UniProtKB/TrEMBL annotation, chain A:
<dbReference type="Pfam" id="PF13379">
    <property type="entry name" value="NMT1_2"/>
</dbReference>
<keyword id="KW-0813">Transport</keyword>
<keyword id="KW-0472">Membrane</keyword>
<keyword id="KW-1003">Cell membrane</keyword>
<protein>
    <submittedName>
        <fullName>ABC transporter substrate-binding protein</fullName>
    </submittedName>
</protein>
<keyword id="KW-0997">Cell inner membrane</keyword>
<dbReference type="InterPro" id="IPR044527">
    <property type="entry name" value="NrtA/CpmA_ABC-bd_dom"/>
</dbReference>
<dbReference type="GO" id="GO:0012505">
    <property type="term" value="C:endomembrane system"/>
</dbReference>
From TrEMBL, chain B:
<dbReference type="Pfam" id="PF03861">
    <property type="entry name" value="ANTAR"/>
</dbReference>
<dbReference type="InterPro" id="IPR008327">
    <property type="entry name" value="Sig_transdc_resp-reg_antiterm"/>
</dbReference>
<dbReference type="GO" id="GO:0003723">
    <property type="term" value="F:RNA binding"/>
</dbReference>
<dbReference type="GO" id="GO:0000160">
    <property type="term" value="P:phosphorelay signal transduction system"/>
</dbReference>
<dbReference type="Pfam" id="PF00072">
    <property type="entry name" value="Response_reg"/>
</dbReference>
<protein>
    <submittedName>
        <fullName>ANTAR domain-containing protein</fullName>
    </submittedName>
</protein>
<dbReference type="InterPro" id="IPR001789">
    <property type="entry name" value="Sig_transdc_resp-reg_receiver"/>
</dbReference>
<dbReference type="InterPro" id="IPR011006">
    <property type="entry name" value="CheY-like_superfamily"/>
</dbReference>
<feature type="domain" description="ANTAR">
    <location>
        <begin position="127"/>
        <end position="188"/>
    </location>
</feature>
Amino acid sequence: MSLIPLSAGFLPLLDSVLLVLAREKGFAAAEGLDLLLVKETSWANIRDRAALGHFDFAQMLAPMPIAATLGLTPLAVPMITPMILGLGNNGVTVSAGLWKRMADAGAPATLEAGPVGAALKRVVQASGRKLRFGVVHQTSSHNYELRYWLMASGIAPDRDIEIVVLPPPLLPEALGSNGIDGYCVGEPWNTVGVKNAGAHIATVKASIWRSSPDKVIGMRAHWAEANSEIVAGLIRAVHHAARWCGESANHAEIAQIMSSPHYLGLPADLILPALDGRLDIGGGVAASVPDHFVPYERAANFPWTSHAMWFYSQMVRWGEVVHTPERARAAAMTFRPDVYRSALAPQGVPIPVSDSKVEGLLAGPTEVAATRGTAVIGPDGFFDGQVFDPARIESYLEAQKAQQ
Amino acid sequence: MPKRDLSILIIDENRSRASIIEEGLREAGHQRVLVIHDVSDVARTLQAAMPDVVVIDLENPKRDTLEHFFSLSRAIQRPIAMFVDHSDEATIEKAVEAGVSAYVVDGLKKERVKPILDMAVSRFNAFARLTRELEQAKSELEDRKIIDQAKAILLRTRRLAEADAYALLRKTAMNQNRRIVEIAQSLVTADSLLGPEE
């Protein structure tokens, strides 16, 4: 039987790994798919070429399909996200000079968002110039998480510090040449900053917003509807890749595969730490962050509509879109737990039966009702203890407005 | 009142390609064409040049940076991607295939922008063709060098005349269903392995 060709764009980041493994370990072929992966140079290219249909689907920043559905981006066509490519993976890295000032101001080398943010606030207050932080894209989880962390730490982005956009591979270099003081990016580019630019990882996504999505599969809604069998096959292939990726015994081989010039083009020893959750955070300090990157466990691939709603709330917060109930609904419906469930439930995979959850209620791993038995999810929520209930988004937006 | 000449900004890290596009636009009568090679300079440039149209190559990893500058910039009217208009998908398709992206100040009539974009696309394609031809010429030159080396080996070891040496290479290639340059390359490699130590 000949395979169905399926093309996808990706950027050189660790969390392209599930797509890479789906291809390299034969999971896609087992579903009858010939997965062709095209390395791109910018999220703008991914967005344009996915919208034009040059790619059948793409690895996207979680907020990208939402922005497209809401018509906020060029060439906007309605997009859906039927699957998440893992939880976590981002970090906030600062230059050696900034870290020294933060440490002097009381920042612990523990990656804890709260105390590290408090120290950064003291540095920002004492700084003679505006510090500058880089993120990978305006419509990115990185931008929203960095802003959330700063704001909750008493630092107003745009007013107290400047945020610029640079592609991931250029961030460590920009830090080294003093163009920026810090950045929020996915692995391996925090580790690269530590190794090549003497930088320090200050905190991680896993501390700012626990068990939260970063990259997703994004595809045109019309295409997905017309090709539902292919979409289901893709979900199954990536599901198997994710399970395989979650086995620590496979990490060394995965780092080897990802180091190829087709994918990251970096030595395997810069890729392995994030997979293992053992980060060299700079200054010879090794930190264990077991949930730094979660490719499979804790229903990592399940597209919670509440996650989509949180990204939407931040688009509203930072003035990218004006809130209406219709837009909120459209944003939530961009994430498609129903598509995910219908592809995998027949295989006996336990999948949460609820589409949405209140962010910040799970203090630890918790059993929830699943299509078969139970599934374990969490912990979840934000470092400052704020709870996000998507059913009460208006009051959440009000509270955030008051904070600013 | 005659229409104001549009201000066009070209951003391309490839200097030769940038000048080919610039030249094309000037020939087409556009006087206000500015070229920069690094997106990092763009904030200043946007203020100074107030471009109506910005052309950038798709391979540029700083497209995201540029779009962010646009969203921040208050100095100029907010430019939007040419792609925003779905009515001309063929143009968009051609542009993306050629590797061009463009941003246009909101409100500009499509008839004014399309010729600029068409020019950029055709120059991008012309440049790609030139590059390809250059690569081909280079590789043909390489091939000829290797064949000459192989002929020299045959001249030396088999004491053949030059024409006969070439004929022998060609005949061997035909018999083995391979290219002459491949046979020549094997011979050169074998000679370097078996030949006298230098």
